[in-house]
Amino acid sequence: MDLAFDEHQSELGGIARQLFASRCPPATVRALEEDPAGFSRDLWEEMGRLDWIGLGQPESAGGSGGTVADLAAIYVEMGRALVPGPHLASAVICGGALVAAGVGGAGGGDHGALTRAVLGGSQIVVPALSEPGTTYGPEAVKMAAEARGAGFRLEGVKLLVAFANSADRLLVTARTGPAVEDITLFLVDPAAAGVEVEATPNVAGYPLFGVMFRSVDVGADAVVGPVGGGWALLRPALERATVLRCAEIVGAGERVLEMAVGYALQREQFGQPIGRFQAVQYLCTDIAIATHLTALLTRQAAWRLDQGGPAGREVSMAKAYGSRAAQQIVHRGHEVHAGVAFMMEADMQLYTRRARHWELDLGDARYHDELIARSLEA
Amino acid sequence: MDLRFTPEQDAFREEVRAFLDTELPPDQAFDHEFCEDDDRWAFAFEFTRKVGAKGWIGLTWPTEYGGLGRSAAERMIMFEEFTYRDAPLLNAIGWGLAAGSLLVGGTEEQKKRFLPEIARFERFWAEGLTEPDSGSDLASLSTRAVRDGDEWVVNGQKTYTTWGHRADVLYLAARTDPAAPRHKGISIFCLDLGLPGISFSPLHNLGGGRQNHTYLDDVRIPADMLIGKEGEGWSYIMNAFYAGGGGGGLHAKMQRMLDQVVAYCRTTTRDGVLMIKDPIIRPQLAELALMVETERLLSYESLGNHENKRPPVFAGALGVVVMKEGQSRFAQLCNQIMGPLGQLGQGSRWAPMGGDPEAWYRQSYANHAGGAPQVKRMVLATRGLGLPR
């Protein structure tokens, strides 16, 4: 019985912390919020050279081997440094679905070359899942794919598509039947006729886009995996991504805790460091608790995913808690820093804004509460 | 990272389950902290002696002191199984606090004299730490022990003495050197409650149990009943509290409560809807399940750190805060889920789940025992995070 990261994972985390501290300091995070791409190609290529992009995927499919727990150790550091990048969208979610489709074999086009390119980092594929008027899960996919000849016609709107402006392909979920999970995955060129990408300003300054599909015709070779079998390919990849989001929350929480404790020790009011006031101590301990419990739930979920069996319950526990923790961490961080954290020159607000994206991404607390409740019914 | 027990440990779990199947009829399970039914207590004494006969009370202690020399993981497994079934394992002060103190600071002679006897459950220990004016600030305790020849003469008052009226001996903290700094002048005694000069008056608690005021009036304790070194009592109390611990099975208790609530919600209709389908109740059940999970992971994390000889995270204080604050929240949620009839208790045929949630709600405020949650927050802030005192 051991919940700690093993030696290899701790080492990976240490390397990642150093790399991101030098290549993605807060000044870079700020600059990238103003950059249309929203991420650093240089750092992306460096992650590729380190074999991190395909981490957690089998070498036979073009991945680098390794485990979800290995990735989690790196994601903790990505969260600490607020590193923006398409890794989660491209390598974890789309790469994961592509690998699963390749293993499954049946149906769809042959995407082996694209899979290798995604896991190597030379191509970026991002998922287009969310739609207006829906929330999360397979129920939220309303967009229809109508069979036309050998191919399909896509009609509808996808929102919250991260890095759509940098993507070589979009991986689009669309409904091919009435059953909840009768969903098919399509690879769509964002430059194809009828596809329009629209920037959506957002709290996190993150590159999120709306994508309009107006009578977009795709061939049968655009299908990934079996028709109607898309969600089964996507679900494990989304579970993995959900756990890694939680790992980012952990890293951010660790950093906010350091900032809050550091400020509480240094800032004096009423003739003493404010960290001596128990009200302020309570705020700091709240951050420590929220961060640490997210860390434990995240490590458990990562370990469970690496075992290969069902892990949905553990994943939802991590995100149900982690989503709330993300908000609690930054809320308490603001209370400790008060006025200075409200100024844009403070780093605290960088976490405050990103935390909101993490909280809502890949299922908010209410959604994962519901999945936990379903696990209790079974 | 590995969240599994070993096959040997799994086999031990099966052994514990088989023992409980045989020795603990479900209708004899009860929480002996909150029950004064003498028949149940008679069963609890008999049951605990059987556990002692298996060698499981001193499971992890060295064999030369009456233990079995088994691992901390097996101790965790045993407590998980016992706690999940609400097994009335008596004498937590004996095998927890007293044995912990002896293992930390006892002389070789004392360990051989006391530990095998505790492992067999020959005498029932109560706790004599808290005083009317020394609760969270325990180090301010003023019960005095004065050396007189081969004896110590003790005067003072203890309070909230759980099980005192049923116990044989008291784990007594008394001030032996009033001139020393307050943490340095305290010693620990094994006080035989049959000695002259000891009396109790009852305090009935919110949970349904009895505690006591304990009056010590010129009680003469033989000198060889001082445990460890004179003046070192505070370090024994602290180490037995934090290192020895009670066993870490709280998550199993919460799991039992959750399982009962879920079973009830699966089979009970309210306002025409099966409770487990109620959109208000579902997130409440999810929150309960999450609290069980985090409590379990905290226990497993500290077990893993112990087994791999790593220091506890946040000076061991974070888990204590979560555990203490969680207890009352957990019971409140269980009770809220029951709806308007949640206020009905045992004895009413209309009480949901036989009135258990009503009792849990009252009992959950025992979370102050061993230190109020707020005090533990201060420990977490100062020792765990390095904030100033």
Question: Helix share of residues of chain A?
Answer: 40-55%
Q: What is the global morphology of chain A?
A: globular
Order of helices and strands of chain B: HHHHHEEEEEEEEHHEEHHHH
Oligomer: heterodimer
For the record, give the distance between the C-alpha atoms at the N and C termini of chain B, rounded to a whole number: 35 Å
Mean pLDDT of chain A equals 96
Largest inter-chain contact set: A-B, 45 and 44 residues
Q: Structural class of the helix and strand makeup of chain B?
A: alpha+beta
In terms of DSSP E residues, the strand content of chain A is 5-15%
Q: SSE order of chain A in H/E notation?
A: HHHHHHEEEEEEEEHEEHHHHH
Straight-line N-to-C gap of chain A? 27 Å
Helix percentage range of chain B: 40-55%
Q: What would your notes on this structure say?
A:
- The complex is a heterodimer of chains A (378) and B (389).
- Chain A is an alpha+beta fold.
- Chain A is 53% helix and 15% strand.
- Chain A has 12 helices and 10 strands.
- In chain A, helix 9 packs antiparallel against helix 12.
- The longest helix of chain A has 37 residues.
- Chain A is globular.
- The model of chain A has no long low-confidence stretch (mean pLDDT 96).
- Chain B is an alpha+beta fold.
- Chain B has 11 helices and 10 strands.
- Chain B is globular and about 75 Å long.
- The relative contact order of chain B is 0.10.
- The model of chain B has no long low-confidence stretch (mean pLDDT 94).
- At the A-B interface, helix 7, strand 10, helix 8, helix 9 and helix 12 of A face helix 8, helix 9 and helix 11 of B.
